[in-house]
Specification:
Blueprint lengths: L1 H20 L9 H9 L1 E5 L2 E9 L7 E5 L13 H5 L4 E5 L17 H14 L6 E6 L2 H14 L7 E8 L12 H7 L5 H7 L12 H7 L1 H9 L5 E5 L10 H9 L4 E4 L8 H4 L1 H12 L3
Parallel strand pairs: 3-4, 3-5, 5-6, 6-7, 7-8
Antiparallel strand pairs: 1-2, 2-4
């Protein structure tokens, strides 16, 4: 009886709190995030508006770099190393994937890694870069998009971008060593809590459909891992070993076993899932060492 009364009290307390939360207005952008948005622009993919950054960088270099961000964030993930990258590359480009950041977030939409890869290809075409070599630097969710882009490049698919090199970082490259967070599992599996959580986490989860990339990784494992295993371009991994999503040593041991041709940079022991934010100088130096090695 006491347990039943306890649950009733929790319910009476929770319902008004949720009701209040759902009506909280969108917070103002921080000054740095406002500047980030103001310095970017949009292009249209089908009927969706996609946000991107495109900075002209180093004089005397013709190298182009495309950055692919992780889940559930945006291109802003790269802001701490942006200046350092523009000092090395002629052009640095980053986008917010559909459903993320400042890009459109259609709710009733079947999000897929394949579509996100097509959006990257469309952006390169929009910028007139579809026939020029580009270097890809990716993180987390972006790793999987990069794997699909690599597959299309190696298979000479129509509309593919020309990849000069690929650097991955802390992504669920192997479904068998990927351990999504509890909240991700709830949203992905469509539990009874899913609609409530989706609304409460409105800034991150605009549709539980976004989480289907976890299932897509399993379904298309051979395609995407195979693309890395047979890659003809320079391949590198920058890894934060304290990552709870792709834990050490399980992840790294499988990576070096299946992809022996790839080079690897392991950052300090305290660096976790977002190495470009946790250790921007270490991350930047690791990437520049890789890009300058060929």
């Amino acid at each position: 009886m006491q347990m039943k009364e306890w649950w009733i009290q929790v319910g009476l307390l929770t319902v008004p709190l949720i009701a209040v939360y759902l009506h909280i207005p969108t917070p103002n952008l921080s000054p740095t995030l406002y500047t980030w948005r103001s310095s970017g622009t949009f292009f249209t993919f089908k009927d969706q508006h996609i946000f991107y950054q495109d900075s002209q960088g180093a004089v005397g270099s013709s190298d182009i770099l495309v950055l692919l961000h992780g889940f559930p964030t945006s291109s802003y993930d790269w802001y701490k190393i942006w200046e350092g990258l523009t000092q090395r590359f002629h052009r640095v480009i980053a986008l917010d994937f559909l459903g993320f950041g400042f890009s459109d977030k259609p709710r009733l939409h079947r999000y897929s890694i394949f579509e996100q890869a097509s959006i990257v290809e469309a952006l390169m075409k929009h910028l007139g870069l579809q026939n020029q070599k580009v270097n890809l630097l990716s993180h987390d969710y972006g790793d999987t998009v990069a794997q699909e882009l690599l597959y299309r490049f190696e298979s000479n698919r129509t509309g593919h971008i020309v990849i000069n090199s690929l650097c991955l970082s802390n992504g669920g490259i192997f479904p068998e060593t990927h351990h999504p967070r509890f909240l991700q599992k709830l949203l992905k599996d469509g539990s009874l809590l899913s609609p409530i959580l989706t609304r409460l986490m409105n800034y991150f989860f605009f549709s539980k459909g976004i989480l289907q990339y976890l299932n897509q990784r399993k379904r298309h494992r051979d395609r995407w891992v195979g693309a890395l295993a047979t890659a003809t371009v320079p391949l590198h991994l920058i890894y934060g070993p304290l990552d709870p999503v792709n834990p050490h040593p399980e992840f790294l041991e499988l990576y070096t076993k299946l992809l022996p041709k790839s080079t690897v940079s392991v950052l300090d022991d305290h660096i976790s899932h977002y190495p470009q934010l946790e250790d921007p100088m270490g991350f930047l130096n690791a990437y520049l060492n890789f890009i300058n090695s060929f």
